[in-house]
Amino acid sequence: MMTPVWQEEILEDLSAAKHAWNEVRKLPAARKNKFLKTAAHELEKNQAAILTANRQDLEAARKENLNSAMLDRLTLNSARIQAMAGGVRVVAGLADPVGRLQETWKRPNGLKISKVSVPIGVILIIYESRPNVTVECAALCFKSGNAAILRGGRESFHTNQALMQVLKQALKKEKLPEAAMTLVSTTDREAVDFLLKRDGDIHLVIPRGGETLIRKVVELSRIPVIKHYQGICHVYVDRKANFKKAEAIVFNAKVQRPGVCNAMETLLVHEKAAAKFLPVIGRKLQEAGCEIRADKSAWRHLKSVPGVRRAVPEDFGHEFLEKILAVKVVPGLQAAMDHIQTYGSAHTDAIVTEDKRAAQTFKDEVDSSSVMVNASTRFADGFEYGFGAEIGISTDKIHARGPMGLEGLTSYKYIVEGKGQIRV
Amino acid sequence: MMTPVWQEEILEDLSAAKHAWNEVRKLPAARKNKFLKTAAHELEKNQAAILTANRQDLEAARKENLNSAMLDRLTLNSARIQAMAGGVRVVAGLADPVGRLQETWKRPNGLKISKVSVPIGVILIIYESRPNVTVECAALCFKSGNAAILRGGRESFHTNQALMQVLKQALKKEKLPEAAMTLVSTTDREAVDFLLKRDGDIHLVIPRGGETLIRKVVELSRIPVIKHYQGICHVYVDRKANFKKAEAIVFNAKVQRPGVCNAMETLLVHEKAAAKFLPVIGRKLQEAGCEIRADKSAWRHLKSVPGVRRAVPEDFGHEFLEKILAVKVVPGLQAAMDHIQTYGSAHTDAIVTEDKRAAQTFKDEVDSSSVMVNASTRFADGFEYGFGAEIGISTDKIHARGPMGLEGLTSYKYIVEGKGQIRV
User: The domain that contains B253 carries what CATH number?
Assistant: First the structure.
């Protein structure tokens, strides 16, 4: 079999990225921020070229009969480009995550040990159709001193190319290495498999997209992967919940944006709260176009609400990503936590209660990356946590967990300073 | 093909470990420490049974003609069992790494966000012949609230079984779930491949052993792996080094224990220091039985030392793990750092200098997990850093880097507390 042309190109890209990283990792904050501001300006200035490329992708997508949600995600316009540029300016304004002294201590033998944050290296990001991911990820990786290898979706290929061209112009203007960010120049699927084996060249992979994509990446990768497969988020309404708060939180968690990973998928209600709470929230959700799937004991309290269905076992632990909600009545807090442990995905789970002891037990014992008390699951988000930016959400147990901002894109090193000490 | 018997056993073990973890992760520090003290006591009390099992392994090993270094690693005696028990008591005395409030802040909407350390989950440790690793890893995983699945070497199978039996007795005595630590009950090689695919049951893999073992684990694993392949450590003796310190450090880094990962493999010397420094250190190393492999320019200063050989290119970037040292003369600090970047393994690299600017540049720019100034590379070690224990050393760029103690065995979660906030 002949080596495909793209393979050689990728190897060149990876080698160039490594060298670029060796410069980028040492850049002072001021130079990184200056570049980001230039990039934002260039994005605005080059709107016409970006929109032309986007129209090319949109035409092809329409020919392939992509559905309207996908077309919407793919579509750029002036406002969306402005928003991208705005996002890049926000990243410019964030604190530099590199070179931060995390801890320092002295040893009895006089050695001084310091733990200092450093960039990770070359980061591969694999994502699907939204072209703004290209700009976001490039900006976040750059600010954190990393080189980015971006592999976007086939559908947005021309848009991504146009965006990358603008970013590279900005790098050139600022006399920075253009290989600090690279868009993989082929849409060949085998290129991903090839990249995932290059653990000598790439330090971290972040897949952003559907579960199928992420499972494939984990299956094939020899490089560490940070990810979440699913967001199966629960809200548990306790016996001692304030029902006004519970109503607002449950409604918000399900309805405000049902297609995202921090939306609620299952509602758990204490049996002593069910008779009062379920009919009210049931009607409110139904009026908002939400389909309710109730287990046997929830059904008793919901059957008066039009359109409520009986749940099948598979409805629990299922990520609907639309206006569908599984509802279950539980005998108490422990049963709620057991359900979450069994069916949850350790993404985000919430309790609504005024009982401090119940809240404390829930906080201590629920092993999710975000645990909420009297707040909507929808807050599990880098912006809402105040990180200013988000590269993704992790449900992994190592490195970054939960919403992941610039800090999640750094590692650390130990610096040991002595006066000639040797080990005895 | 029939399913092998061990496969069912492993699935049972994993299920039991998951349930045990669900208890262990919530244990208060006092109960964990009490168990560890009981375990230490039981190890001492059951010496006879452990030594009987060890003799069984040693006999088999002699029949298979294992070399003397391997036999030594495998051998237990009363002093070594005492040392194991002592190590477990040290772990009992360390601070609980779980439940530590790492950060807390308030958002403008009133949400209070806290970042709290939590155990990782079920941890698989794959290791080779030294049976003390069984006890060390079980103790460290337990103290950090994790369940441990241990897969030791075939040669130490009976010893490991005897040790695990003692640990399980101690768990039973303390009314703790016995599945909190499990020794894989088969030595079948395919069992490792099977375990590495169980990413739903196991949260982290730590391979401890030779590079071949570790590469195999990374190749096959769908579970995150923390590891280092090699320790190719450098010492750079700067033009402005204090030669007395340099002599002590270089000698210590190479000779004190050459077979470990933080021993020096390559010595780099500034060209202005070479004439004075190299003949002295060369003779000293030669007298200690060290073989020197000098590049062309180092050779000029070392040829008077008996037995010095000319280096071949492959000697640089090579992990000798014995009394062999590659030596190179460099034109200056930048060349030294470039060499380290090209040939190093990002484990531990040292500079010897009295020049503060050179030291600062080296600290800032060398991207190794431990960077030493005027200290021996041999200090890169969890005990020497004051962690009290070490589960391994990582040269990965995510999660734990460098020497990895109890903190490296934890993750974190975000706790978000509100008063009914919803997302707008």
Answer: 3.40.309.10
Q: Which of B26, B204, B363 has its CB closest to that of A415? A: B363
pLDDT digits (tens, 9 = 90+) for A330-347: 999 999 999 999 999 999
Test A402 with B413 for CB contact under 8 angstroms: yes
**What per-residue confidence (pLDDT) applies to A1?**
61
Residue B159's CB: how many other CB atoms inside 10 A? 28
Instruction: Render pLDDT for A47-56 as a digit per residue (tens, 0 to 9).
Output: 999 999 999 9
A411 closest CB neighbour out of B341, B372, B401: B401
Q: Is residue B56 part of a domain?
A: yes
pLDDT score recorded for residue B1: 61
The Cα–Cα gap between A323 and A343 comes to 19
Report yes or no: B182 and B150 within 8 Å, Cβ to Cβ.
yes
List, edge to edge, every strand of the sheet that includes B324-330: A101-106, A112-119, A410-421, B370-375, B348-352, B233-237, B264-270, B324-330, B291-294, B309-310
Judgement on whether residues A262 and A198 belong to the same structural domain of the protein: no
* A56/chain B closest Cα distance in angstroms: 35
Q: Are residues B22 and B111 in the same domain?
A: yes
The answer to whether A371 contacts B416, with C-beta atoms less than 8 Å apart, is yes
Q: Do A202 and A288 share a structural domain?
A: no
Section B186-199 average pLDDT: 93
Number of domains in chain B: 2
Instruction: Name the closest residue on chain B to residue A371, using Cα atoms.
Output: B415
| Residue % of chain A over a pLDDT of 90 | 93
Q: Residues A422, B248: contact at Cβ < 8 Å?
A: yes
Residue B390 maps to a domain: no
**Tokens (6 digits) for B261:** 């990962």
A243–B contact, CB cutoff 8 A: no
> Do A369 and A240 fall into the same domain?
yes
Note whether residue A423 is domain-resident.
no
User: Residue B309 and residue A150: Cα distance in Å, rounded?
Assistant: 47
Shared-domain flag, residues B218 and B274: no
Closest by Cβ to B423, choosing from A252, A363, A364: A252
- Beta strands of A70-120 (E only): which ranges? 101-106, 112-119
CB contact under 8 A, B398 and A226: yes
Give the structural domain span for A357.
Answer: 233-383
- CB contacts < 8 A, A to B, total 208
B79 and B154 share one domain: yes
Cβ within 8 Å, pair B218-A203: no
Candidates A376, A398, A418; nearest CB to B422: A376
Do A62 and A191 belong together in one domain? yes
Is A375 part of the contact surface with chain B (CB cutoff 8 Å)? yes
Cβ–Cβ < 8 Å for A254, B258: no
Distance from the A153 Cα atom to the nearest Cα atom in chain B, whole angstroms: 24
> Hey, how many other C-beta atoms are within 10 angstroms of the C-beta on B32?
21
Same domain, residue pair B171 and B154? yes
Which residue in B165, B109, B147 sits closest to B32, CA to CA? Answer: B147
Within a domain: B393: no
* Mean pLDDT (whole number) for B281-303: 97
Answer whether B29 touches A (CB < 8 Å): no
CATH of the domain at A182: 3.40.605.10
